[in-house]
Amino acid sequence: MGMANELEKENAAIAAMEYVEDGMTIGLGTGSTAKYFVELLADEVADGLVVRCIETSEQTRRLAESLGVPLIPFEQVERIHLTVDGADEVDEQGQLIKGGGAALLREKIIANASDHMVVIADPSKQVERLGVFPLPVEVTPFGYTITAKIVYDVLVASGIDKPRVSLRRTQGQELLVTDGGNYILDCHCERIPDAEALAARLSNIPGVVEHGLFIGLARTVIIGNENGATVFEFS
Ligand SMILES: O=C(CO)[C@H](O)[C@H](O)COP(=O)(O)O
């Protein structure tokens, strides 16, 4: 990841600030691109902008707290006007793969509960078809080996050629445990023929808590470049 890439991420976040209005409740995404947005928001808060935010991960909670961005407990949120988050892959229909940072469950709950989800990304995230980035599937620890086998069968039944399902580990090789206390299966697909159909099938498996396919959730996708950003709107 060079400097150019960082500039592209930052420019996407700058463009997302256009959607922020005084008085909003805002969902804060997770990851290195979303971090730029939280930092920009913090600058505006310091200058008097009034917003209330809800974080999609413990990592983002710590970041927001350290920068003085006001957070409110999710239980107190009645409406989320805007959520700005990154993505691991974005296709031409605005369908996403998310969860590279293991925060997909809270990210999806918050994106789904938001009036407007804005995705910010650099051009390396744009794909014609989803699937090169391994699809994260969050599963309950109980029965995860059986769930992994069923996930594999569902991938094959969904037209994925020779998928590989691996249990995510930390850099120290321990099993990764999500903020929700679950495990992540990374599904190496290479090519997902029908993301919407696969999403529905994965959601039907007992033991699957959530998966990283975000279908029909992103209304705006902002791709940063070195000079600015390109905005794509989806209905
Ligand atoms: O889905 C995510 C975390 O679960 C992130 O949005 C995704 O991994 C992109 O991260 P980055 O902006 O660092 O590339």
From TrEMBL:
Pathway: Carbohydrate degradation; pentose phosphate pathway; D-ribose 5-phosphate from D-ribulose 5-phosphate (non-oxidative stage): step 1/1
One GO biological process term: D-ribose metabolic process
GO CC term (a single one): cytosol
Family: Belongs to the ribose 5-phosphate isomerase family.
Classification via NCBIfam families: PRK00702.1, rpiA
Protein task: Catalyzes the reversible conversion of ribose-5-phosphate to ribulose 5-phosphate.
Protein name as catalogued: Ribose-5-phosphate isomerase A
